[in-house]
Amino acid sequence: MAETRNVNVKSSNGKVSGARNPYAINLDNFSRRLKILYSHWNDYKRELWGASDAITIATPPTSEDLRYLKSSALNIWLVGYEFPETIMVFMKKQIHVLCSQKKASLLDVVKKSAKDAVGVDVVLHVKPKSDDGTGLMDSIFRAVNAQAKSNGRDTPVVGHIAREAPEGKLLEMWAEKLKNSNFELTDVTNGFSDLFAVKDNNELTNVKRAAFLTSSVLRSFVVPKLEKVIDEEKKVSHSSLMDDTEKTILEPAKIKVKLKAENVDICYPPIFQSGGDFDLKPSASSNDENLCYDSTSVIICAVGSRYNSYCSNVARTFLIDANAIQSKAYEVLLKAQEAAISKLKSGNKVSVAYQAALSVVEKDAPELVTNLTKTAGTGIGLEFRESGLNLNAKNDRTLKTGMVFNVSLGFQNLQAATKNPKTQKFSLLLADTVIVQKDVPEVLTHLSSKAVKDVAYSFNEDDDEEEERQKVKSETKGVGTTLSKATLRSDNQEMSKEELRRQHQAELARQKNEETARRLAGGGSASADNRGNGKTIGDLIAYKNVNDLPSPKDLMIQIDQKNEAILFPIYGTMVPFHVATVKSVSSQQDSNRNCYIRIIFNVPGTPFNPHDANSLKFQGSIYLKEVSFRSKDSRHISEAVQLIKTLRRQVASRESERAERATLVTQEKLQLAGAKFKPIRLSDLWIRPPFGGRGRKLTGSIEAHANGFRYSTSRPDERVDVMFSNVKHAFFQPAEKEMITLLHFHLHNHIMVGNKKTKDVQFYVEVMDVVQTLGGGKRSAYDPDEIEEEQRERDRKNKINMDFQNFVNRVNDLWGQPQFKVLDLEFDQPLRELGFHGVPHKASAFIVPTSSCLVELIETPFVVITLSEIEIVNLERVGLGQKNFDMTIVFKDFKRDVFRIDSIPSTSLDGIKEWLDTTDLKYYESRLNLNWRPILKTITDDPEKFIEDGGWEFLNMEVSDSDSDNSEESDKGYVPSDVQSDSGSDDEDDDSESLVESEDDDEEDSEEDSEEDEGKTWEELEREASYADREKGADSDSEEERARRKMKTYGKSRAPDKRNLGGSLPKRPKLRR
Fold it and tell me: Could you tell me which residue ranges the FACT complex subunit SPT16 N-terminal lobe domain spans (predicted)?
């Protein structure tokens, strides 16, 4: 492509010619490749080498231009270095080299290897600086003629590279002598092309490293750079983008690519094109025009890099607010390029690749055939374009395993049908570096995604949708004009948008009811209590026999911590009890300074006592319920109580951990990365939940190994393994308005972190240090120290975010390998612009959607809700002029409790409804909070009745509003059969559970009964007050006065439903824990 750059010629092992370090020719490579050269020459002497008796290679002097020559390629391929101003003549029994003294001393080491490999003698002709080399050339010509005469030929055939013009006095004189000699000259370009076409393992390694660098530059530098420029609406020229990208290629450490800079170079100056001026030829260049990112713009980026002189290339096209024409063209191009790549298999003809691409275009978009590039790419290696390996329709050469191609396909000069002159004409280009394999070609640049979702950007999606809707609307009315953007923001258009959302929600309701009916009919959600059973503990054995009891010193309470036992003096004998049998222990002191200690034991049959294995095993036994002791020694009593509580807590914690571990799903074993695969590492991280223990908390490192992650600190017992197969969702949340940057893993099955059982594991770094000003006074905003400190904090945050981003990118690449495709893993990033505040647990938090989940990852406990597991969403307490509303999430598994997010600001309502609608989640709105446990129980008990009554439409507030003033018989909404309506008479006793959620909903039945026995409920008190008001004639009061009086009575209670002012009021719902 563009050729205006000063390049240092490099060797294949990375050393720069002219460096002070001595050169070292790899003799093994030299011997092996010299054999390949002579074998190829002998096998294809007439077909590819022009029946030549000798082959002459003249390498020109170094140049400022970036160029690819077969003579230079042969030098690098054979000896690992480029030898400028050197002439090599290959003959059957000799190799003649005309060069300087320094080069001759370097090549002297190959004499023995050449003799051993192919039986040829290497003859070095050293040219002094003052000599023009004529005499040495004549001696080489005499050797060529002598070989020809020995073979019975008077006119020797000499092969040369005809397309390389001689440069410099030495090569010009050599070319003149060849022309005037009696030699028959023949072009051997095709022979060298075929020789270089198939790469060995060392060459393929160099190409792979070059491709990794190329795709990493595009993905980690170019794409973020373009996104930042477009997002911040900066004016940046194509040439400046080219310069920045070139610097990044030459310094791989900038993008965390661990390749030595001295081994790296560019294939061509990076190409950036936009604004309607496109050139898809390899010689294209970046002009000085600014990057164009208007609506319907197209941006083409092409990047090529070399590693140890081996080339790679990648090109991508980015679409900005693409219209239908551009989107279709790109999809067709992508499909055509993938078809071409799929044909690069050993044994196929080269032409089938282009024919496959052409067939796709002819079938899917025949109107674009004339715009398709005439080739689908070229061979690539030491040369950027290897002659003879063009992927066109006429090339009938056979593909072989180990060939490498730059598969480049594009559409030139398409029309976008826009009014902007910069976007009317556009082109598309895709290019990848591909290795020919026996079965499936290997795409080396797959790290840089070309999927539509990754290259198509939409920055004014709402405006485009509005324009389309207005266009359709105007056409239906017979109006040919399109409304302006100002009109799109009118009230009528907002109403149209709401109407479209309602129509979509109605369709979702129909689909959801059908889906729920099928699931319930299949028994997919049977009614069951999902609360866990009581925890069991192991066999409680303090002492195996009487002889193990410690000898009593005094008849006083003793605590045996080793055996986890408490010994009580009972009737003159020390009786042991395992500490796990103790339910509670307490002490108190009376007025006579007598101290009492009271121990209550776990006894089967008492309320709230878990039925452990031992109580079930000895059901016929007599149990001691409690025991009390009196003592004058208050210090001993206090010490005994403290020791018993501490020991009991330790045993309970251990048994609880043991019970939790017993329920864990067995995970596969972590396969540590070997020597070939260095683990991907991120250091200095904290973990949540944290490890237990009282010691100082330590940071650790997370490493990605062959099949999972391992987090570990410097302590050997602080280690957590997270298997890839156990990861359900992975999140990366950079610090923006938060104080931490984090990685979060939501798992399929629980794991143990320390002694905690969890499904959520988080690794994070605090991006800001807590700094305390010693002076205590308020510092000026213009204080240089303050400004410098803020800059340091910004730099630290950006560095941490970049480190996390690089880790995430590398793990995503690892997950993209074929063995992990079935897991469908990729780091998801929360979409802050869609977030909203709410109370999911105790405290307010910022809840953010992602592409597949609804998450809150800062405050604990974390919130991770998979969108695909949601049945419906009910928005409660909507309307009535309230400042907040609640969101209830009902899961497809009716055995799960619903999830509530309380106190969401009403300003977020429209945004949430729009997000739910775009993610195809059905939502309903209600004026009150519903009690979901009896509702779900009713549904699972009688699913047929639920479906017959309209499914979830009983939640439809529009239906209930239209019939709110009618009688109970006219209500068509769904009411569970075991729950009475609130519209009944005030005189009737209503003992059933209310659909309106109350304070008692989350408590056990026994607690509810005990509270009801203690006194009257708020509902009963309100009913009595209502009766009293009627007797006193208070019914004449206005509804506003009554509502204000009730609000005053209830304090923080929610406003009552105006439709039910005469009935019972809902109780204040509690925040869910």
Answer: 25-192
